[in-house]
Amino acid sequence: MKPGARIAAVIELYDGWTHNRDDADRVVSGYFGSRRYIGGGDRREISERFYNLIRHQARLGWWLAECDYQFQDGRARMIADLVLHDGLTTSDIEDRFCGEQFCPDILRPNEKHLINKLSGKTLDHDAQPGAVKAELPKWLYTELMKLHHENLAAEMAAYNQPAKLDLRVNRLRGTVEDAIKSLKADGIKDIERTPYAPNGLRLPLGLNMLVTAAYKDGLIEIQDEASQICVHLVDAKPGMTILDMCAGGGGKTLGLAADMRGKGRILACDTHGGRLDNARKRARRAGAGDCIQQRIIADERDSWLRNKSGFFDRVLLDVPCSGLGTLRRNPALRWRIGQRDLRGLMAEQSKILKAGAAKVTKGGRLIYATCSIMPEENERLIETFMRDRKDFKPVPVNEIWPDAPKSVPVPGGKDKPWLRLSPNVHGTDGFFVAVFERTAKGKVK
Fold first, then answer.
1. Annotated binding residues for S-adenosyl-L-methionine, as ranges?
2. pLDDT tens, 403-418?
3. pLDDT tens digits along 199-239
4. For range 131-154, the mean pLDDT
5. CATH of 225-438, one of 3.60.10.10, 3.40.50.300, 3.20.20.70, 3.40.50.150
C-alpha cells in the first residue's frame, strides 16, 4: 500500500472507533477481516498508527483546541499526530494527502494553517493539565494521583508505551532452552529471558507466534509476565485439587497444570462457553488435557459449584475487572471505563471473592488477582474481606516466593503483603495478587 493509503486506513479506523465506541481490538479485527488483501507489513503499520492516535488522544485533542481548530475527527488528529509525533512538514504530509485512489483528499487551506501552527512543536507542552499529560480522563487521573502521587507521570509514561511480546514456556513439552532453540530455528531473533518469571521469554512486537513450531507443538503460550507471576504465587503442587473459578481462555490454568507436572486435578470454570472451548483446544496442544476439567457455570452461586465447598487446596480468582493494568496493550480502555462501570465490577468481585473463599479447604489457599491498577478493585476490596473473614490470614509474597528479586513485592505494610506490579517498575502489565490461607472452617458473614 502507498503511505497515503495506510494513512487513510488509520483515519477510517479511528472514526469508526469513535463513532461506535466498540472495543478497539474488535474494530481492528473487523476492519482487516473484511480486507484480507492488506498485507502483514501494512497491517502492522496501520494498527500501530491507529493505537498511537488512541495513546495520544488527550494531547492531540488539547493541541487542536489550543489552535482553535474546529474539528476533532480522525483526519484532524492524524494530521496533528504526523506533525507533533512524527515531525513531518507540510510537504511530507501533502505527499500522503494527495487525493489519489485510496489516499486522503488533498489538504485544505485550514489544514495547512494548522500544520504551520503546530510546526516545530511536540505532543507534550508545559501548559497541559496533568490529566492531559497522563492521557487519562479527569476522574481516573484524580483516583490514580491518590495512589501514585508524584510518580504518576512516570507510571503513565510506561503505560503509554506498547508492550513487548511475552511467552511462557510449557514445561510439560520441554525446557526454556528447547523453546529458544526452536524459535531460533524459525528465524526468531532478539529473544530475552523475563527477569522474574522463571519460564518466561520476551520478544519484540510484531511477531506471529502462531506459525512457529514451538507454538504448534504446545511448547510456548503467549502470556504476559505478570500473569506468569500470578500462577507462580498459586504455588501449585503435583497431586493438588485446584479451582480456577474465572478461567477465561485458560492461560493460567495451563500454567498451573505445568507446575503440577500434569498430576492432580484442575477444575476450570467460566460463565462463557466459547472461552472454555478455546481453553480445551489449548489444553490438548499443551499436553495438559488429562488433569484439567472445564465446566460452564451460571455465576458464582452456581448450584453445582456450591456443592464443592471446602473441597479445594487452591482457589484462583482472576476476577473480571476494569483491565486498566493492560493499557499498554489496550490503550482505549481508559476512555471506555467509567466510575459507574467500576462500581458494578466491585460488586461482582466481592460476590466472587465470597463464593471462592467458601471453596477452600482448611489449610488451603485463596488467590485473588486482577489486571487492574485501581485500589477499589484491589486493596480496598481485600481489606473488607479481611474484616469479614477471620478464618483467612494473608500469606506474604516472600514466603511463597523466597528467592523473588527484591523489586517484585511492593508491600503496603506488614499487614498488607500484597503484590502490585506495573510496567514502570517491573516491565509487566499492571497486576495485583493477594494470597490467603484458610486457618479454620469459619462461616461467611
1. 270, 299, 318
2. 776 666 554 445 568 8
3. 999 999 888 999 999 999 999 999 999 999 999 999 999 99
4. 94
5. 3.40.50.150
Calpha distance 226→106 (Å, rounded): 46
> What are the residues facing 437 on neighbouring strands?
365, 393
Tell me what pLDDT residue 108 has: 96
Distance CA 439, CA 426 (A): 32
- Contact criterion met (CB below 8 Å) for 173 and 216: no
Strand ranges of the sheet holding 165-169, from the earlier edge strand across to the other edge: 192-193, 200-203, 165-169, 220-222
Active site residue 230: no
Q: Are 307 and 332 in contact (CB under 8 A)?
A: no
CB 254 within 8 A of CB 171: no
330 with 24: CB under 8 angstroms? yes
Compute φ and ψ for 285, nearest 5 degrees: -65, -35
The single residue of 103, 269, 321, 371 carrying the catalytic annotation is 371
Grid cell listed for 283: 489444553
Distance CA 404, CA 426 (A): 12
Phi-psi region of 153 (alpha: psi -120 to 50; beta: other; left: phi over 0): alpha
Beta strands in 245-334 (DSSP E): 265-270, 292-296, 312-318
Distance from the first to the final alpha carbon of the chain? 62
Give me the helices (H) in 260-301, please: 273-286
Half-sphere exposure (CA, 13 Å, Cβ side) for 277?
Answer: 3
The amino acid occupying position 242 is I
Distance, CA of 194 to CA of 182 (rounded, Å): 17
The 10s digit of each residue's pLDDT in 44-98 is 999 999 999 999 999 999 999 999 999 999 999 999 999 999 999 999 999 999 9
Bin 244: left if φ > 0, else alpha if -120 < ψ < 50, else beta: beta
CA dihedral 369, 370, 373, 376 (to 10 degrees): -80
Instruction: Report the binding-site residues.
Output: 270, 299, 318
**For residues 146 and 139, what is the distance between their CA atoms, to the nearest angstrom?**
11
* Phi-psi region at 193: left, alpha or beta (left = phi > 0; alpha = psi -120 to 50): beta
Report how far residue 244's alpha carbon sits from residue 225's, in angstroms, rounded to the nearest whole number.
Answer: 19
Sequence ranges of the domains in the chain? 3-128, 225-438
Mean pLDDT score of the chain, rounded to an integer? Answer: 92
